[in-house]
Amino acid sequence: MTARKKRSGLPPRCRRMYRCLMDDRAGVRAARRKGLAVTGTIGIPEEAARQGQLDFLDAFARLHQTNFYCLQMIVDRLLAKYAKEKS
């Protein structure tokens, strides 16, 4: 185990099992430096869609009706991926 990962205070197994939900870029960098897995808001429905638990395009449409913001290049990539899978 590296010194960097020890600083997170979590056992290695927990760092792989859980993710921090965080959209703040500085916070994401800090969490990753401590060896924590991080996902943004869009990562939650994306993971659920990968597991077959929801329709990503439907979830994104509902999320998009809120004050949610995501970089356009990420939105474009995900929408293209799930539109292709749906067809």
The description of the largest β-sheet is: 2 strands, parallel
- The radius of gyration over CA amounts to 15 Å
Count, helices = 6
The main sheet orders its strands as 1-2
Assembly state (oligomeric) = single chain
Structural class: mainly alpha
Number of domains: 2
By DSSP, the count of extended strands is 2
Fraction of residues in H or I helices: 55-70%
Q: Determine the N-to-C terminus distance.
A: 44 Å
How much of the polypeptide forms β-strand, as a percent range?
5-15%
Overall geometric form:
globular
Order of helices and strands: HHEHEHHH
Summary, kept brief:
59% of the residues lie in helices and 7% in strands. By secondary structure, the chain is mainly α.
Indicate the topology:
Layout: H1 3-6, H2 12-17, E1 19-21, H3 25-33, E2 37-39, H4 43-50, H5 56-64, H6 72-86
Parallel strand pairs: 1-2
Protein described:
The protein is mostly helical and 87 residues long. The protein is built from 6 helices and 2 strands, in the order ααβαβααα. It has a two-stranded parallel ribbon.
Features:
globular, 59% helix, two-stranded parallel ribbon, mainly alpha, 87 residues, 7% strand
